[in-house]
Amino acid sequence: MKISPFLRVRVIPVFHLKNTSMELKKFLSIHILCVLVFVGFIYYVTIFIFLDGSLSLQSSAGSLHALIFTLVASLCVFSFFVCVLKDPGGVPSSYLPDVEDHEASDQESKRSGLLKKQCDKCSAYKPPRAHHCRVCRRCILRMDHHCAWINNCVGHRNYKAFVTLVFYATIASTYSLIILISSALHKDWDFDEVTPIKLFYIATGVVIFGLSLTLGTLLGWHIYLTIHNMTTIEYYEGKRAAWLASKSGLNYRHLYDVGAYKNISLVLGPSMLKWLCPNAVSHIKDGLSFPTSREYS
């Protein structure tokens, strides 16, 4: 029986509306609302109080700084939305690992190998680098961690967006701090008198400085992980593996470390022009297998 074109047109929008509503529900989180309010506050005080107070938005220098800060802040917000909405990557229901046992090929040994690759929580088979997230209640491909601030896991498909988010957020907060300091130096302060505006500058400066330091540290951490092609989980697992290897007189090397440039390309993409574009992820594969150092040795 053929379905008329009229009926098809009615079915498709309902499906898309359902998906859209599910995506919008991710924003119904206290953490995400706090992030959006905080970003709005930082943007407002940076442009309309600190920058306008030091250079004036009517001047060419003030307008240029406002434009640059707005661009960086917009890229930060865009990266944030990609992190929230992008699925980190779940294990396909049809996934079945390959079990190669060269020492024993009997059926019992193969069954034992499969059990080792099975998740204890959701009883699904786990590809290499996948881990179970107790918040999302499923296994996530190349899982790094679950982030409450994006109400989502950071995994295989949105890790690049997370790195660019931290990068743009670090640049924006540092830029805001510089504008705040510049504005404070332009004012004729009476250091013997405590005024509300002085307290506001000090309190805001402390907050933005703390934010810049925290984000800068986080950015440095994920640059290190990207260069070594590690996740946060793999880093701590690797520390234990390295300790065990040293006790046996062996050297430990992360299995997926294939060289700095290749590691960066696997995460950010082969084109340097697209490294800072959070949604340029055409290079991302299925996440079920990854190149190893053995293949490049």
Structural class computed from helices and strand pairing: mainly alpha
Shape: elongated
Uncertain spans: 5-12, 101-105, 108-113
* Spatial separation of the terminal alpha carbons: 58 Å
Count of separate DSSP helical elements: 9
Indicate the radius of gyration in whole angstroms.
25 Å
Give the strand order, joined by hyphens, for the main sheet. 1-2
Count of separate structural domains? 1
- Can you summarize the main beta sheet? 2 strands, antiparallel
The helix/strand order is HHHHEEEEHHHHH
Strand content: under 5%
Helicity level: 55-70%
List how many beta strands DSSP finds.
4
**pLDDT averaged residue by residue:** 87
Q: Which labels suit this protein?
A:
4% strand, S-acyltransferase, acyltransferase, transferase, 57% helix, mainly alpha, 297 residues
Present the secondary structure layout.
Elements: H1 5-24, H2 30-54, H3 60-85, H4 107-116, E1 131-133, E2 138-140, E3 145-147, E4 152-154, H5 159-186, H6 196-227, H7 232-247, H8 260-268, H9 293-296
Helix pairs in contact: 2-3, 2-5, 3-5, 5-6
Describe the model.
The protein has 297 residues and is mainly α. It has one domain. It is 57% helix and 4% strand. The protein has helices spanning 5-24, 30-54, 60-85, 107-116, 159-186, 196-227, 232-247, 260-268, 293-296, and strands at residues 131-133, 138-140, 145-147, 152-154. The protein has a two-stranded antiparallel sheet. Helix 2 (30-54) runs antiparallel to helix 3. The radius of gyration is 25 Å and the shape is elongated. Mean pLDDT is 87; it is low at 5-12, 101-105 and 108-113. GO terms for molecular function: protein-cysteine S-palmitoyltransferase activity. Its main location: membrane. Belongs to the DHHC palmitoyltransferase family.
